[in-house]
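Troubleshooting entry. The earlier prediction with adenosine-5'-diphosphate gave an output that would not parse, so I re-checked the input for stray whitespace and re-submitted. Clean input:
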Amino acid sequence: MKNLKQLCHPRQSVFDKSRRDVVLDITDLTEGKIDPTAFFAENYITQGMRSLNQAVFKRLEGHSDDGVFKLTQTMGGGKTHNMIAVGLLANHPEFRQKIMGEVYQTSFQEPAKVIGFTGRENPRYGIWGHIAEQLGKRDLFRDYYDPLEAPGQSAWVNLLKGEKVVILLDELPPYFQAAKAKQIGNSDLAVVTTQALSNLLAAIGKEELKHVALIISDLTANYSEGSEMITQMLDNYTAEVNRVSKNFTPVQQTGDEIYHILRTKLFRNETPDSDVAEIAGAYANAIKEARQMDITTETPERFAVAVKDSFPFHPAIKDLYARFKENPGFMQTRGLIRFMRTVVSRMWDENDGWADHAFLISPQDIDLHDSDTLTEIASINSTLTNAISHDIAGNPPAVAENLDAAFGNDMATKTAKLILVSSLATVQNSIRGLKDSEIVRNLCAPGINISEIQSKILPELKTNCWYLHIDNAGNFLFKNVQNVCDLKPKQRETLHWNAELPMGESG
Ligand SMILES: Nc1ncnc2c1ncn2[C@@H]1O[C@H](COP(=O)(O)OP(=O)(O)O)[C@@H](O)[C@H]1O
Ligand SMILES: [Mg+2]
């Protein structure tokens, strides 16, 4: 059986820290700074992207009454990425067949114009001035610049008629929020912009603009006020044109799309099915042994299928990611890509990586002595640093590391790291922690001895770790408070001198 190092070849961007998190925006696209070949090499066509492409090209052909499309997802979810993908295809006809030939065969053969706006810019003559300028028709809107005034519907029709164009409006919520502070007459720029864009949407409903497509992105959570104005615009559009904007989700966060994206982003080759099947079979065998020992309830067949779908990632990664993806400040798809790039760069490290004796990238493969990894963990949940340094990986050695030394293997640290990754959610009522049978299931791997996890490793961790708790449902989880209800011998000593130890919860 081939190992990960033999099977999967990471892209250079995995090792190059400066490229780990390049964030492209709409200005990069409209200024022609994005190389379509490089972009599409690392693109995975999600269901949302598929439908969006199809809808936009039908519109460019003039075959569709739907001209307004909305992308909704929280930050880092793939909205801008989808806009750039559609923009590049609209701009570069030569990529259409290769990239979306299977998805949709368009009769629209020419290049379309692509213009756009990102709310991180602050154009002098408003969004309308910015749009007119990109069309090379700045003067057509000259009456609306000084003072800034919203162009009406017919002014927009006049500006855009005869154009085959995709208009991308990204990051409007933060723009609207800032625009509120800019007074115009007895109103403000946010109100005038909402008016201008409502008129634009109404114009797009007109027959003369049947080759114009507009894509708008909305950030649900973070800028609720700015989002309100988008809702208002789209409601006006529905009222006036009697059409609703079509909604698209860039990346389904629950299915397997996230694995496909990770694979495409992180690795430059595909793995032959036969090699993946061999690994899936080996994992199924490991699960089978654990079942015979009666320490897990997972079925080998189901697990083998899960491994095939998620390879080279462990099936647990998706479930554990789902727990912390809603953490405030965590950037969903982007955040997971960054995190996994960091993990992969350690596993494939020239000097001390371990991809050559691993078969999947698992949650317990995080290296907590690596400062980049610690930074990533802290960006997901910054409250567990004491738990990490005292219980999991530290200097002096942490509890789990001392247990490893005593037992002569690395199962205690593996177990502790898995529990840590399962404990990262910060949103109230989110799932945290794993039951012992789930821990066994996730640690099962070819050549790994899991027989002592339940009988020896977990009890020892429970006795010696300060921040490890077991909740009422029997889940092991790390918290940022010490487990004082279940005092450890060493802690009792400390407590004697320091009566102000934070109160822990369950025992
Ligand atoms: N379909 C996809 N294929 C490859 N990478 C993707 C895909 N969707 C999103 N990404 C990646 O996810 C990250 C976040 O996407 P981005 O468009 O910047 O999010 P948003 O605009 O919603 O904040 C980017 O690094 C992007 O490259
Ligand atoms: Mg974006």
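This one parsed fine. Residues 23, 42-44, 46, 49, 73, 75-81, 250-251, 261, 264-265, 333-334, 337 surround adenosine-5'-diphosphate (ligand 1) (CB under 6 Å).
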